[in-house]
Amino acid sequence: MNEVFTFFGILSHNHLFLIVAHTLLSAALVLWFAKKATTAMQIVPRGTQNVAEAYLGGVITMGKDVIGEKNARKYLPLVATIGLIVFVANVIGIFPGFESPTGNINFTLALALIVFVYYNYEGIRKNGVISYFKHFMGPEPLLAPLMFPIEIVSHLSRIISLSFRLFGNIKGDDLFLAVILMLAPFIAPLAPFALLTFSALLQTFIFMILTYVYLAGAVTLHEESL
């Protein structure tokens, strides 16, 4: 997307600089939202606090059916933070003069690695190293030599799935928007803007729900065996 004008491009045309700058901008917007929502909190929420509480309640409801309410609340900070940063990074590219950090594979790969490392860490911490990796061998001991490498590959593929799904969809959206703005900058941008906003929300939801699903698979081994 180097051919598209960005405000940060005035400072440098280096694409790595642009991605880092938009990533920092997305993080700053998330921090601003969190700060504004938690400043002068009231018993009856209003304004930004109301939006934040509705969002957190929605994240808990989303995870409750996947991992249980207790665990949904436990992992709320991780999932809610990921949701905010992914949504802002997705939607920022819809505005002319900005670029979506999630349209870069390095950004989405970093998020995927965070989720991968964290859910495996939680699985080992809660179940122990032996019990956690024993689960990879399946219920039949005779099939363990076959199931174990399959499970390892399956878990590693989650990194690719998480990162490339988000990257591919947002990159495609960015290219679609660039074409629309070049062909009809003043006539037809509103409908694509609405479509791309919905896509940004959808991709955020998918990333969050998959994070809960992977955490559920890692930390609920004991419940599955009962």
Reconstruct the topology from this structure.
Elements: H1 15-38, H2 47-67, H3 69-74, H4 76-91, H5 105-127, H6 129-134, H7 144-183, H8 190-219, H9 221-225
Helix pairs in contact: 1-2, 1-4, 2-8, 4-8, 5-7, 5-8, 7-8
End-to-end Cα distance, whole Å, is: 52 Å
Low-confidence spans: none
User: How many separate structural domains?
Assistant: 1
Q: What composes the largest sheet?
A: none
H/I helix tally? 9
Helix content: over 70%
Overall mean pLDDT score?
A: 88
Provide tags for this entry.
226 residues; mainly alpha; 9 helices; 76% helix; globular
Describe this structure in words.
This protein has one domain (7-225). It has helices spanning 15-38, 47-67, 69-74, 76-91, 105-127, 129-134, 144-183, 190-219, 221-225. Helix content is 76%, strand content 0%. Helix 1 packs across helix 4. The mean pLDDT is 88. It has nine helices and no strands. The longest helix is centred in the last third of the chain and has 40 residues, at 144-183. By secondary structure, the chain is mainly alpha-helical.
Brief account:
The chain is mainly α and 226 residues long.
